[in-house]
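User: Could you go from structure to sequence for me? I need the amino acid at each position, not a summary. Structure tokens:
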């Protein structure tokens, strides 16, 4: 009987060519500090948003994401979310009474109307920016959706630490946002191995709370029932 030879395809690892920009990816991590007025301590580190915008804008490859901000206990939970342009944020009502969620900021104006417990509605966020979200019934309810112009973004933890994985080596602008401080922007060079312990300090000493207007641009009725 003749011996039949079966061809075998052998691919040498050395022939697999991966672009350097894809191989050279590491994490960029750090910790943010916030300077407060005398006698005050920071309790909202987790409201800090960090993102990296590459000097070469052609490297930005963003996909819309989805996120949720619930209404619970007359508050938005969580207080801040970060998404990319074109994303949608869902607002489920987990309170035993109705809410009317809206934003009057150009670039993300919407009014979800009044809806009861157990219901959920969503809204699109198409353009980069920081957008405050309010309830037309409860004047102290405030949240923020930060639309980062880059897929390399993160939200800090309760200790102020943050980490952005898989960042290609290169030149970037590091942006750190917090509602109570001026946004920090600074150039940063990311090496092949990434960066650790990136330190940044925000100054919140000038922050003063100002009650927002309702969706009609008027003051809230202080005599109204806030159920």
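Assistant: Here is the amino acid at each position, in order:
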């Amino acid at each position: 009987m003749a011996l039949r030879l079966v061809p075998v395809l052998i691919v040498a690892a050395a022939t697999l060519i991966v672009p350097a920009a894809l191989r050279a990816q590491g994490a960029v991590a750090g910790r943010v500090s916030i300077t407060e007025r005398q006698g005050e301590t920071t309790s909202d580190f987790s409201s800090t948003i960090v993102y990296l915008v590459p000097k070469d804008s052609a490297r930005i490859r963003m996909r819309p994401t989805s996120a949720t901000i619930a209404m619970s206990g007359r508050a938005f939970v969580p207080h801040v979310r970060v998404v990319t342009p074109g994303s949608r944020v869902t607002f489920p009502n987990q309170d035993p009474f109705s809410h009317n969620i809206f934003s009057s900021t150009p670039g993300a104006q919407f009014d979800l109307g009044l809806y009861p417990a157990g219901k959920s509605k969503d809204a699109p966020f198409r353009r980069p920016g920081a957008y405050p979200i309010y309830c037309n019934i409860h004047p102290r309810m405030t949240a923020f959706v930060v639309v980062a112009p880059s897929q390399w973004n993160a939200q800090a933890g309760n200790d102020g630490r943050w980490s952005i994985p898989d960042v290609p080596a290169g030149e970037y602008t590091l942006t750190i946002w917090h509602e109570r401080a001026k946004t920090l922007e600074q150039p940063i060079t990311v090496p092949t191995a990434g960066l650790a312990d990136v330190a940044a300090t925000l100054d919140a000493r000038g922050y003063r709370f100002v009650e927002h207007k309702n969706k009609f641009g008027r003051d809230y009725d202080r005599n109204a029932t806030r159920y």
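One structural detail worth keeping in mind: The chain is about 0% helix and 45% strand.
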